[in-house]
Design goal:
alpha/beta, 6-stranded mixed sheet, 4-stranded antiparallel sheet, 33% helix
């Protein structure tokens, strides 16, 4: 069952088409990745969902009903352009945002204390935002986004500004939120995060949807007829009509070659060719990363 659905969303700014009949269907209690290069239309779609701007055409539904401005109170939104007040104290600001989302002061204080302890920023309660590092500011804004326990949480580039340790902390918190029943929709350029977190994705390029589905199914689909060969030493294989070399890497005295076969060529035939080329260390079907798939699709469309 879909918690959120957008159907044929179109948006144009002057002569620029930002979205061209883009549709997404976000299953309940899943983590959904919205992917695409810069300028693809991802942020525009997220802003439309949050009623910051309106579509030229198309419809949106939340829990099977048309999305209305009142529904925004039940959505958590962390925009790419952060919105904390630099001169305001952290605790006062977090409390203010919580009350804007409908929480009583007492309930907001209870939840804020929980999250500030959990993300290890208790000592920053009385500090001004401008005194915080970018990563610490990100944590504060993350808390204000999820504090009212929305069913739909939208993150626009949530890992920007975080070092690897804190980025991993936020990834774990996103998984925790899903376990507690939240549905997560986020845009990112970090393909590693997609593989770690996402159940489903939609890839947008030049305002159009060009790929969508479950991450595991997409990777299997793109793995068809691809193999990874590892040789001892610097080994090269020449392309022929039976296969194409997708990637060749030589390091630590080993050659790693990814190739794609043409048609239904038995893996044994590929292995025979490999054995004639050099000493084979390993031979396995390849499962391309989302980063590789992303690059291949976008480059093929440009």
């Amino acid at each position: 069952m879909s918690l959120f659905e957008a159907r044929n969303i179109t948006k144009q700014f002057a002569s620029t088409v930002a979205l061209d009949k883009v549709s997404i269907s976000v299953p309940e209690q899943c983590i959904y990745g919205l992917l695409g290069p810069n300028g693809a239309g991802k942020t525009t779609l997220l802003r439309i969902i949050n009623q910051i701007t309106g579509p030229d055409s198309g419809e949106m539904f939340l829990n099977g009903k048309k999305l209305t401005p009142d529904d925004v109170l039940g959505i958590g939104y962390l925009p790419e352009e952060r919105g904390l007040y630099k001169k305001m104290k952290v605790g006062e600001q977090a409390l203010y945002f919580a009350q804007l989302k409908g929480l009583t002061k007492a309930e907001a204080m209870k939840r804020l204390k929980y999250w500030f302890r959990k993300l290890d920023i208790v000592d920053w309660w009385g500090k001004k935002v401008e005194e915080l590092s970018k990563g610490m500011q990100q944590k504060v804004q993350f808390i204000t986004t999820v504090l009212h326990e929305p069913k739909l949480i939208i993150f626009d580039e949530p890992f920007t500004g975080f070092d690897p340790v804190n980025a991993n902390t936020i990834k774990n918190e996103i998984l925790f939120l899903r376990e507690r029943g939240a549905t997560i929709l986020f845009s990112t350029h970090n393909m590693g995060s997609v593989e770690e977190l996402c159940d489903n994705i939609t890839l947008i390029n030049k305002a159009k949807t060009i790929l969508e589905g479950r991450v595991d199914e997409i990777r299997k689909q793109w793995a068809a007829n691809e193999f990874d060969l590892v040789f001892q030493g610097n080994v090269k294989i020449e392309e022929n009509g039976k296969y194409k070399i997708l990637n060749h890497k030589f390091e630590d005295d080993q050659s790693t070659i990814r190739l794609k076969t043409a048609g239904d060529i038995a893996s044994n035939d590929i292995l025979k060719t490999a054995l004639n080329a050099g000493r084979v260390v390993s031979f396995n079907p390849a499962l391309p990363s989302m980063n590789e798939i992303f690059i291949r699709i976008v480059e093929s469309r440009n």
